[in-house]
Write a structure and sequence with these properties.
alpha/beta; six-stranded mixed beta sheet; about 25% strand; 14 helices; Rossmann fold; 18 strands
């Protein structure tokens, strides 16, 4: 077992004027389980990466000392298992079994021990797929469980988990938490977990450490007692204190939505995008779901829920024109259609030119990095507007508005790829909002958000619907987000296909 010690430790990325985190001092005893809390951007992920030995002096500047059993983390490789915030960045091999075995192979675990470990780890996280199953065919939530299985199979002394349940459905969250509980129950491993939703982990951990966004530590002590003693300070810092919901004003029930008795939606309701008899897939040889009929009501916020792997993201990308259905048709309402162009179908978004999509259907991907194209936050926000040839004064005004609304002002010169997960998510939302598209598709929009930034994000999306008549489709597992923005609630699952769960009552 291993202990962790920080002595006035801090880290600043190369080229940044501000510290990601600084002046951290604490000791974590062998076998202890700790929940690491703090505002989005407070440096929680940076601390985990430093403990895993994956950041170096070439990437930034360090102050103080961070030690594992009195040694620098780079000298403890193999004793630390890290599950990163973006699970896709942890996938290295093409098949599930090989990917889980990869860490064991690097540690020179004997071959006859590796495969029993792989099977056991996959069972513990509830990832029930063949060992030869392609990693590219996994959903985002399944990739999170894959990454956790790889860390468990290594049997590291220290297990570092960065938002391990962020994109999981409720059953997936339960499976992951139960798996982690089993792994650390005998106190043979030290656990440090970063998670914004405190209630998921508070009864599993011994202790919470709350990082201050400006440096130092706000609170440190036994989990529930510390949260209760520092309740107001934690709320001010953006911590999701159990039992205290975010004060988001739910959107009103749309006039054209079904009544609370879930009667069918009137056929006369205005629709902006429809899909008929869709068969959806990421690749032509792997259909995920078929026979889907879906309508997005104009100027309405629709949420799409369902278990991991059901095809929610694929359906959203299909409606957004970024994936073509294997069968069926997606049609845009006449008012959304672009002018006819050569070799395009004005009614089919999958055939539109990129400039037509930019101003009509904006998409926020589940992995924010997939849409970054510039070397700074400000340039990222201006890229789409520059491509549309907006006047410079108008570009500057729109960019400044979004930077302020989404709390990105201190990051304007930072490289988007160096931001925290929550900051990347807010930037990806901002890049889509910049061009004011009539339809916005959001895949897990609240991933990595603290209570304060979550509230700002929800209010901004709500305002798009109520003030600008934007149509919003959100893929989400976030119950609070569904309550606030689920004017229409659709559910996709393998057993029943797409079902309408009606609307939230006023």
């Amino acid at each position: 077992m291993s202990s962790i010690t920080a002595e006035h430790w801090g880290w600043r990325h190369a080229g940044r004027s501000t510290w990601a985190t600084r002046d951290l001092s604490f000791t974590i005893s062998p076998g202890e389980s700790v929940l690491l809390l703090g505002a989005s951007g407070a440096g929680k992920s940076t601390l985990l990466h430093a403990l895993a030995g994956v950041i170096s002096g070439d990437e930034g500047e360090q102050q103080g000392r961070l030690l594992i059993d009195g040694r620098h983390p780079t000298r403890a490789i193999g004793r630390v298992g890290l599950v990163q915030q973006d699970p896709e960045s942890s996938v290295v091999l093409a098949r599930v079994g090989d990917d889980v075995a990869f860490g064991c192979e690097n540690l020179r675990v004997p071959r006859d021990e590796i495969w029993p470990r792989v099977r056991d780890a996959l069972a513990q996280v509830g990832l029930d797929v063949p060992l030869r199953h392609p990693t590219s065919a996994l959903s985002g939530g399944q990739k999170q469980r894959l990454a956790l299985a790889g860390a468990i199979a290594m049997r590291a002394d220290i297990l570092l988990l960065d938002e391990p349940t962020a994109n999981l459905d409720p059953d997936g969250i339960r499976q992951v938490v139960e798996a982690v509980d089993r792994v650390v129950a005998d106190r043979s491993r030290t656990l440090v977990v970063v998670e914004h939703r405190v209630d998921t982990w508070v009864d599993l951990v011994d202790r919470v450490i709350v990082l201050d966004a400006v440096g130092g530590i706000i609170a440190d002590g036994p989990a529930r007692a510390t949260i209760e003693a520092h309740r107001d300070a934690l709320l001010a810092a953006g911590v999701w204190v159990p039992g205290v919901p975010a004060p988001a004003e739910p959107l009103p029930r749309p006039d054209h939505a079904p009544r609370p008795d879930h009667a069918p939606r009137p056929q006369t309701a205005a629709s902006i995008i429809t899909g008929h008899d869709l068969t959806i897939a990421r690749s032509p040889d792997r259909p995920i779901a078929s026979g889907i009929d879906i309508t997005l009501p104009e100027a309405t916020s629709t949420v799409l829920t369902g278990p991991n792997g059901a095809g929610k993201s694929t359906l959203a990308l299909t409606l957004a024109g970024l994936l073509a259905p294997l069968n069926g048709r997606v049609s845009a309402a006449p008012k959304l259609q672009p002018p006819p162009r050569r070799r395009t179908d004005p009614a089919d978004p999958a055939t539109w030119h990129s400039t037509d999509l930019t101003t009509r259907i904006g998409t926020v991907f589940q992995q924010p990095e997939h849409q970054f194209v510039a070397a700074s936050v400000r340039d990222e926000l201006t890229a789409g507007l520059t491509a549309l040839k907006w006047p410079q004064a108008r570009i500057s005004q729109r960019t400044d508005e979004l930077i302020q609304a989404l709390h990105l002002g201190h990051l304007t010169d930072a490289n988007p790829f160096t931001l925290s997960g929550g900051e990347k998510r807010r930037l990806s939302v901002a890049t889509v909002l910049a061009t004011s598209p009539a339809v916005i598709v959001l895949d897990e929009p609240t991933f990595g958000q603290d209570r304060n930034t979550w509230l700002e994000l929800v209010r901004l999306i709500s305002d798009q619907v109520t003030s600008f008549g934007t149509t919003v489709l959100s893929v989400t597992h976030d119950a609070a987000y569904i309550e606030a923005l689920g004017q229409v609630h659709l559910h996709l699952d393998p057993a029943h296909g797409l079902t309408d769960r009606g609307v939230r009552t006023p």
